[in-house]
Here is the input.
Amino acid sequence: MATVKVLVLRAAGINCDMETAYAWEVAGAAPEQIHVNRLVEDPQRLEDFQILTIPGGFSYGDDIASGRILANQLTYRLGDGMHRFIDRGGLVLGICNGFQVLVRMGLLPGADCGVPATLTLNDSGRYEDRWVRVRTESDRCPFLRPGEVLHLPVAHAEGKIVVEGGAAGVAGLKAAGRVALRYVAHDGGEPSYPENPNGSAGNIAGLTDATGRVLGLMPHPERNIAPTHRPGWTADTSTEGDGVRLFRRAVAAIR
Here is the structure.
């Protein structure tokens, strides 16, 4: 069976790289953690991998805006290489701060979409650290299975997705197939706070690009890998956490 090699990017302030690498290991991949400076020195290293992951955390302290500095670094030093990586079939996963990076790079929802979107401060005005339910919406993203509901934790202060044009913009994102995940209520219906923890337009929790090979999401799938990671696990008969499914599917898609 072919080895699927995953690059887990590191940078100052990123603090979920080890958990993310572990999730890929559980999924059967071979992850390698590489600092962004080493990648800038030798962009050809991207060619050694099939999957690129930008983990969560607070890259460069979010000193300008969440993910902005790392996004600029990747855009101006590695932008062409990342586009080639995607064009040759590579998968890209951005989790929380990594999602913010992908949005600020313009990779999500993608310039070809024609519906600008960004991420800003939560409506609650504070850091949200809680478990939520999200439903997968995309039928083109190899990380996801449409209609599946996942129980995952969020941990962010700037996770609100704002879309130009309001409701019409959200409809445009859906029509273009860019909405990957949406927050849902416990009963599967439309959520209110705190089930939508940040006030995102259209209850959007994650986006994908035109190819489906780039996925960004605010919840942390790498924090629900084992069944014991989830609240109420003692009454749960699951053999693994919901988050591991995203990683397993990506590995299977490459193989």
In short: Residues 172 and 229 are 36 Å apart (CA to CA).
